[in-house]
Design goal:
Helix content: 40-55%
Structural class: alpha+beta
Number of strands: 32
Strand content: 15-25%
Radius of gyration: 48 Å
Number of helices: 29
Strand order of the largest sheet: 2-1-5-4-3
Length: 938
């Protein structure tokens, strides 16, 4: 059977079928390639968009890094600077391009360059974080002090040490200045304590095996102890009294042991034979087994009293040895007894027909009969004797003439009570003083001179006592007015003393232990560091949180009480606001350091992470398009200005948030920035009725052709910093007012003393005593004028001595009228500033020289001239002060160097105190010149 033949059409169709299949396959492959190319194109465009966003984020972070208010640096292992922001370049005082590639240590002051090297060495040893304080190099009078913090960041194969470090520079100049002010205040308190004039010694009693007091040991002494006793502090502290004073037995052991055991204070005066001096000693006990002695050298006063007693004894014996006429009267005036001289005297002076004034006669009747004669002395004698007998007068004396026809005679009569005043009777003595009139006058003159010297010594001792009391009072006044708490603590946790601030802040219960009334605890605090002082024997500083929730910078010092017991002197300064500001600053720095350390990863993070960082740092960014006036803010910027996020903004709406008083200034700064000037300012904004402080910093943006696009900047909320600065300024102002008030009160107290002395002088009749009090008044006025000038000035450390001298001399010229109106005063003084410890001695020297000139230089003359000059040698720095006159000059043979007058002695002593040289120039007239060095300003 044959197979049927196919047609040509069927054969052609059968051949085209594989071609169609191949074509369909090729079309499918082409479509697949097109889809893959489209997917790759879209992926590429997404990658390009990501790159653009990453670049924008990098630029924004770089702006934030550059405009941060803290200096940021990147260092290699050798300390070479590779990166630095604008704030860091501003602190180092150079352009950023000049800083990069240079070692950090070259920007430190020469004295701190080794500290930078030690800092870098710590990094090399593997420490992850290190902090150092250093002073930057520069020619400023007050160079900047910064805190350098370094964090070891990441490995860098290109670095010489194989790693890079991230560092911050924080300006702490203001904080260091505040700390220096606190140290200066503490030094002033220490100098006040060291300047006490009375000796102060703290002791502890040493008991034997049976519990009896056998000796006592010196625990501490003040500088006045060394000056009064001549015993060095090194030899005294720790020594037993029996060995220290060289007499084999502890002086006054019984008294001191009784005070240490009972706590009852006692005072006494004694002649201390080992030193050949007389002391007034006050003893009190600050604790069981301990006592303190405060003693003053009263040797000169006792010598003066002994001289007075010797003078009185001499007068008494002299009167007893005189050939006096003596009679004893009863209460009615009858003569009970009389010596032979009285009888002879009565017989010689009896008038004709009158009975003699002998035993049994009434002497008052005799005097009454005599009053009928022209002799006026008879009536005075009668009144005086009656006053003595009646007790109205302790003694009556008079001199009277009793002439006879043969001779002229003078008699001295004395009437004193017979026994106690008013009990009855009197003793009458008559002494013929005719032949001894001149000798008695000479004796009276010598006695007056002796009384004058005794009065001068007494006044000097009184002034010394008053000054010591004033010094102690000022010391306690300073403690009471300090803006910090001060207290004393015993080893058993009790508090014998607390100043006003402590009492107001924490209350005060001396009968309870500190942890009981402060924290209501039954046991000592576990974290209390105060009592480490008793273990180490040295001072310490630490920070303490009080029961009122505030923080204090605490200074503890070992302190020995007056009885020799160990105490702790503690002072605390409230640093709560500073701690809060530091904590906020540390938080901000820690946050920023974390952002810097992770900057590579943060550049890849989303906008949300960047906004979160801005919120932590309270820094927002903004961009203003000047072509469209469109203002773009970050979320943090909306929060800072209190505006809902997403609110459309323009430059004009931004000005509406600015405080009305700051708008004109801000607009002027922005217009200036558009002209190329820097835009960096602080201003206020109003947020929901609240005032905030904002710091803004920006730079301009230009396109590739240099056309202005707008500006980009940051805004930082600095409200808390402003508040902290205001509190610091208020604290400094309060301390300035406190110092001014101290000088004002000292001046007022001295003026009161001057007025009291003046009133006392007006009640005295003796010219010599009145003159001494007037000189004392002028010296007190001299010291008061120093504090008055310091109170009126703005600088409490130094005083314009030329202005002070003009006021002092003007007062002396007015007070010593009429001489002051006749003598012309010429002043040639440079306006030199002297510290207080030089101004007071110089003022007293000027006072003594000026008064000496007014009193002695122009005797017998109706006019004259006094010159005062003050200058400083530019080569040596020494100051020269001179007082000269054209008066009578110094007496022939008078050596002012050995003169015993109080004024010249004061000049010599005060000149030695200020390390000065005193010279007396040649005539005519008198010239004194004092040259002394001046210490540099602290």
């Amino acid at each position: 059977m044959k197979t049927p033949r196919r047609s040509p059409t069927a054969r052609a169709s059968r051949k085209r079928a594989p071609a169609r299949d191949r074509l369909a396959q090729l079309e499918a492959e082409v479509q697949h390639l097109r889809e893959e190319l489209e997917a790759e194109r879209q992926a590429h465009e997404g990658h390009l968009e990501s790159q653009r966003e990453l670049e924008i984020s990098r630029e924004r972070y770089a702006s934030l890094y550059d405009l941060a208010p803290v200096g940021y640096l990147t260092l290699d292992g050798n300390g070479v600077i590779h990166e630095i922001n604008l704030a860091g370049a501003s602190l180092l005082g150079m352009k950023r391009t000049a800083i990069l590639g240079r070692p950090l240590r070259v920007f430190a002051a020469k004295a701190d360059q080794r500290a930078v090297l030690r800092h870098l060495t710590a990094m090399r040893r593997g420490e992850l974080s290190t902090t150092t304080e250093l002073t930057l190099a520069g020619n400023d009078p007050a160079p900047r002090v910064v805190e350098l913090r370094t964090v070891r960041a990441h490995v860098d194969p290109t670095s010489a040490r194989g790693y890079r470090c991230l560092a911050t520079l924080t300006d702490i100049t203001a904080r260091k200045q505040a700390e220096e002010a606190v140290r200066t205040s503490e030094e002033r308190l220490r100098r006040l304590y060291a300047a006490m004039n009375d000796g102060l010694v703290l002791h502890e009693v040493v008991y034997n095996a049976s519990g009896q007091a056998a000796d006592y040991r010196l625990l501490d002494v003040n500088p006045a102890f060394e000056r009064i006793t001549g015993i060095p502090r090194e030899r005294a502290v720790g020594a037993l009294a029996s060995a220290l004073y060289g007499n084999g037995a502890p002086p006054f052991l019984e008294i001191y042991a009784r005070v240490a055991a009972s706590g009852e204070a006692q005072s006494f005066e004694t002649d201390f034979t080992p030193m050949g001096k007389c002391f007034h000693v006050s003893v009190f006990s600050p604790g069981q087994g301990r006592f303190a002695t405060v003693f003053a050298d009263i040797t000169e006063r006792k010598q003066a009293q002994e001289a007075v007693r010797a003078s009185e004894e001499l007068n008494r014996r002299t009167l007893q040895a005189m050939p006096a006429h003596i009679a004893v009267l009863d209460r009615q005036g009858r003569i009970l007894a009389a010596n032979q001289a009285w009888e002879e005297f009565g017989a010689q002076n009896r008038a004709a027909g009158e009975p003699s004034a002998t035993v049994g006669a009434n002497y008052l009747e005799v005097c009454r009969r005599a009053t009928a004669t022209p002799d006026a002395s008879a009536a005075d004698a009668l009144a005086g004797i009656e006053a003595v007998i009646a007790g109205r007068q302790a003694q009556f004396t008079m001199e009277y003439p009793c002439h006879s026809p043969q001779e002229q005679r003078w008699f001295h009569m004395t009437a004193v009570p017979l026994g106690a005043p008013g009990e009855g009777g009197a003793v009458i003595t008559h002494l013929n003083i005719t032949a001894r009139k001149q000798a008695e006058q000479a004796l009276q003159k010598a006695h007056a001179e002796l009384e004058k010297r005794v009065a001068e010594r007494t006044a000097q001792l009184a002034r010394t006592t008053e000054l010591a009391q004033a010094e102690r009072q000022r010391f306690y006044a300073v403690l009471e007015t300090l803006p910090a708490y001060v207290c004393l603590l015993t080893p058993d946790y009790r508090m014998p003393f607390a100043n006003r601030i402590f009492r107001e802040w924490f209350g005060y219960r001396p009968d309870r232990k500190c942890y009981e009334f402060l924290f209501d605890r039954s046991q000592p605090c576990e974290r209390c560091e105060t009592y480490n002082v008793l273990k180490t024997g040295g001072p310490q500083r630490w920070e303490w949180s009080g029961p009122n929730g505030r923080h204090y910078d605490v200074f503890d010092f070992p302190f020995t009480d007056t009885d020799g017991s160990s105490l702790i002197l503690e002072m605390g300064v409230d640093i709560t606001e500073r701690k809060q500001a530091e904590a906020e600053l540390d938080n901000l720095n820690a946050t920023l350091e974390q952002h810097v350390a992770q900057r590579t990863a943060e550049l890849r993070q989303s906008r949300e992470d960047l906004d979160r960082a801005q919120t932590v740092g309270q820094i927002g960014w903004w961009r203003l398009d000047t072509r469209t006036n469109a203002l773009t803010w970050s979320d943090e910027n909306y929060r800072i200005f209190g505006v809902p996020a997403g609110t459309p903004l323009t430059y004009e709406t931004f000005l509406g948030f600015v405080h009305p008083e700051d708008r004109a200034q801000l607009d002027a700064h922005w217009q200036a920035a558009l002209r190329g000037e820097p835009y960096d300012l602080e201003h206020r904004v109003l947020t929901d009725g609240q005032v905030k402080w904002v710091r803004e910093k920006a730079y301009l943006e230009f396109d590739s052709e240099g056309q202005l696009l707008g500006g980009f900047g940051i805004a930082q909320d600095i409200t808390r910093r402003k508040e902290a600065e205001a509190q610091i300024l208020a604290s400094l102002a309060e301390k300035s007012v406190l110092l001014a008030e101290i000088h004002h009160r000292v001046k007022n107290n001295l003026q009161v003393i001057s007025s009291l002395i003046n009133l006392q002088a007006d009640t005295l009749q003796e010219p010599a005593v009145r003159a001494s009090l007037v000189e004392l008044r002028d010296r007190v006025r001299t010291m008061a004028l120093v504090h008055e000038k310091l109170y009126e000035s703005q600088d409490f450390a130094r005083m314009n001595f030329a202005d002070y001298a003009a006021s002092l001399l003007g007062y002396l010229w007015r007070a010593h009228s009429p001489v002051g109106t006749q003598v012309r005063l010429i002043q040639a003084a440079e306006p030199l500033g002297l510290p207080l410890d030089l101004a007071v001695p110089c003022g007293l020297i000027l006072n003594e020289l000026a008064i000496n000139t007014l009193k002695h230089a122009f005797k017998g003359r109706s006019d004259g001239e006094v010159r005062f000059s003050l200058s400083q040698n530019s080569a040596t720095g020494r100051i020269a002060m001179a007082v000269s006159d054209n008066g009578v000059g110094l007496p022939a043979g008078f050596d002012w160097r050995t003169a015993d007058t109080l004024g010249l002695r004061l000049v010599r002593v005060l000149a030695q105190q200020i390390h000065g040289d005193v010279e007396a120039g040649p005539g005519p007239g008198t010239q004194f010149r004092i040259a002394f060095p001046i210490p540099p300003a602290s």
